[in-house]
Specification:
By secondary structure, the protein is an alpha+beta fold. The protein has 6 helices and 5 strands; from the N terminus they run ααββαβαββαα. A 5-stranded antiparallel sheet has the order 2-1-5-4-3. A hairpin with an 8-residue loop joins strand 4 (about 105-110) and strand 5 (about 120-125). Helix 1 runs parallel beside helix 5, helix 2 (about 20-35) packs antiparallel against helix 5 (about 135-160) and helix 5 packs antiparallel against helix 6.
């Protein structure tokens, strides 16, 4: 049975630990494999010195170039490129895809709600590879992944205990503790926001189903009335 969206979000949150994000990336890879199969995938986090890449496959070669990633980080929105020609405005990224034999691309922005800027990039070896992908699932998953990675990196920083010259272990200071607590609060707020999004989408789906059922019944009654008049 396929996991629900809230289960995916909870799994990402539960994977957070002082490992710098390794657990979050493993969960993210598993979710993406189930929801949007890919031949290549990466997470790119924006830093002052450039993008830090985390590959989700055995191939460590980057997929997207800075021309696309900077644009996505500046204007966070989902981008879908169904064939290499769609990437003419991002020639460096298109060149990379062609060189690797990849033909379609899906770019999901990371969380802007306190998390780091960047994107999850998925690629397939055939055109129109992500037409059937559910953005209602993938967008919240990418948003949560961004926040969870930010939290994991904060925890990794706060748990580092370099020993001073005296040999006495250094305990995390008040700043480290405050940073971790603030990140936890942000993650909880994002979870609540995603649960609210799930509730809204569910309500919209139920309303659409009710409307379709009403239209079906009205159409059936109208058709039956016409048959009786004949």
């Amino acid at each position: 049975m396929m996991a629900s969206l809230d289960q995916h979000l909870i799994a990402l949150a539960a994977a957070v630990g002082p490992d710098g994000g390794d657990g979050v990336l493993r969960v993210l890879r598993d979710v993406l494999c189930a929801q949007a199969p890919f031949e290549a995938a990466e997470v790119a986090l924006l830093h002052p010195a450039g993008f830090q890449r985390f590959t989700l496959t055995d191939d460590v070669e980057p997929i997207a170039a800075e021309d696309l990633l900077l644009d996505v980080s500046g204007r966070p929105e989902v981008r879908r490129f169904d064939e290499p020609a769609d990437l003419d405005v991002f020639p460096r990224t298109r060149e990379r895809l062609v060189r690797r034999g990849l033909k379609s691309l899906l770019v999901l922005p990371l969380s802007q709600a306190g998390g780091g800027k960047g994107a999850v990039v998925l690629a397939r070896a055939h055109t129109f590879g992500f037409v059937g992908a559910s953005l209602r699932v993938l967008v919240p998953v990418a948003a949560m992944a961004g926040l969870a990675l930010d939290w994991a990196r904060a925890l990794a920083r706060s748990t580092r205990t370099p020993e001073p010259a005296s040999g006495v272990p250094h305990a995390p200071d008040a700043h480290d503790a405050a940073e971790s607590e603030a990140t936890i609060l942000l993650l909880r707020a994002e979870l609540e926001r995603q649960h609210a999004l799930i509730a809204t989408l569910t309500a919209e789906r139920d309303a659409a189903l009710r409307e379709n059922e009403t239209l079906r019944k009205d159409s059936s009654r109208m058709f039956g009335s016409r048959r009786r008049r004949r």
